[in-house]
Design a protein that fits this description.
Layout lengths: L1 H35 L4 H25 L2 H5 L6 H36 L14 H30 L1 H23 L8 H13 L2 H28 L4
Helix pairs in contact: 1-2, 1-4, 2-4, 2-5, 4-5, 4-8, 5-6, 5-8
């Protein structure tokens, strides 16, 4: 456990300058775009997703740029601690950025309602403000972790430079396959959409769906970490 904490601290120290710059950027852009779009969804989606992907990729990029990944092999950290430490660091970054996004969204809503921007008055459109915030946040965090679970094993196995070539093909292949399967003329016909409607009713709406996707995302993230740890242990530098 101490090795994992050391790995988290190492990644955090190397990323602190970038985090400060991005935080100020999101304060200016997040609130501004939320007000221009007359809704709080932008910050809730863009900030956790972009932070998760950028922290994951930049931490690997810093390893390779300075050959830190080779020097780290001479430290007391074993390879499994390196993997789980990085996964924990990205998880912490996503969680903190999600909390930051909620603050920006609520500030935007308060400013918009004070200025009389009706679009930000979600209760006036028959929606609870907290339902929208919660659903958007859970959907985004769950989706980010699920995508990261595919990226992490590739990056630990082959390095981020090589894996970046495979990632677009992987995601494009998954999206294409899913789109084909669930299309009206696909092999599954309308069954997926009908099942989705029943699932939404069972979960009580989009907020329940967000909770479900968050749980699936966390499970895939942990599974991706286990796969990455096994692949990284066998990697030859």
């Amino acid at each position: 456990m101490s090795g994992i904490r050391a790995m988290v601290a190492s990644d955090a120290m190397r990323s602190r300058g970038y985090v400060v710059q991005v935080a100020w950027m999101w304060v200016l852009i997040g609130v501004g775009v939320n007000l221009l779009q007359d809704g709080p969804i932008f910050a809730l989606i863009a900030i956790p997703a972009s932070t998760g992907f950028s922290m994951l990729l930049s931490s690997f990029g810093q390893d390779e740029a300075g050959d830190w990944q080779l020097f780290r092999l001479t430290t007391p950290l074993d390879r499994r601690e390196v993997v789980w430490g990085r996964m924990a660091f990205v998880t912490l970054a996503v969680a903190l950025s999600a909390a930051f996004a909620v603050v920006l969204a609520l500030v935007s809503m308060a400013i918009g309602q004070w200025a009389g921007m009706e679009g930000l008055n979600l209760e006036g459109r028959g929606m609870s403000s907290w339902d929208v915030v919660w659903a958007s946040l859970m959907l985004t965090v769950g989706g980010t972790l699920a995508c990261g679970a595919l990226m992490a094993p590739l990056a630990f196995k082959s390095g981020v430079q090589k894996s970046l070539r495979a990632m677009p093909l992987l995601f494009a292949g998954i999206v294409t396959l899913v789109a084909y399967l669930v299309s009206p003329g696909g092999p599954w016909g309308t069954a997926p959409m009908e099942a989705f409607g029943r699932l939404m009713d069972a979960l009580g709406g989009v907020a329940g769906l967000g909770c479900l996707l968050l749980g699936v995302g966390v499970a895939l993230w942990v599974l991706g970490g286990a796969v990455a740890a096994r692949l990284y242990e066998s990697r030859q530098f």
